[in-house]
Write a structure and sequence with these properties.
Helix content is 31%, strand content 20%. Strands 1-8-7-6-5-4-3-2 form an eight-stranded parallel beta sheet. It is α/β, with parallel strands linked by helices. The chain has one domain (5-211): Aldolase class I (TIM Barrel). Helix 6 packs parallel to helix 8. It is globular, with a radius of gyration of 16 Å. It is built from eight helices and eight strands, in the order E-H-E-H-E-H-E-H-E-E-H-E-H-E-H-H. It has helices at residues 18-25, 49-53, 72-80, 96-105, 152-161, 175-184, 193-196, 201-211, and strands at residues 5-8, 32-37, 61-66, 83-89, 109-114, 132-136, 166-170, 188-191. 43% of the residues are buried.
Amino acid sequence: MPRIKIAPSILSADKSRINEEIKEVEKYSDLIHVDIMDGIFVPPATVDSDFVKTIKTKVPLDVHLMVHEPSDSYIRGFIDAGASSITIHEEACRNPMHQLEFIRKNGIKAAISIKPKTPLENIKKYLDFVDMVLIMTVEPGWAGQKFIDETMPKVRELRKLKPKLDIEVDGGITPYTARVAYDEGANVFVAGTSIFGKKDRAGAIREILSSLK
């Protein structure tokens, strides 16, 4: 299995002091997870590529587009803003391969995500092309939701199909649920509330890592 990566999600951070917030976690982070929502594919609308440009960190930015039919120029905004990887949603794109190819052509990692009720079958044709798959463990949109155990068979099946692929889980990740997902085959853990909701952010990350030993 690929190595464990921790990806704090800035969805739960204080956006008005984002660089100070990231400073507290970057030493313990493999990725910084940046959730982008358009108010169409999911109800809330969040930050845009201009905001991402203001982020100052050497930790790779893992941009997750919860966006209906993102255009080339829209995606280009995040590439120019410094994204290291961009994840699109299978459910949000008529032809996901178009967006995946555009991302890869621009020299960064491409990933695809599915919501809790979307079958793994829907993305099997992309597995040889992507650098990572994100299995949502809550319905995308709101921070602080409860982890959905029923998503785990998809993680297990995906790990059997692709032993070396990065498999990311996002939603309701705590030390306990990270261990559950790890045992099924996940190796990239997005955590928002369970890190930025605590005073000791470094300690919160250490707790998650300890649960994976």
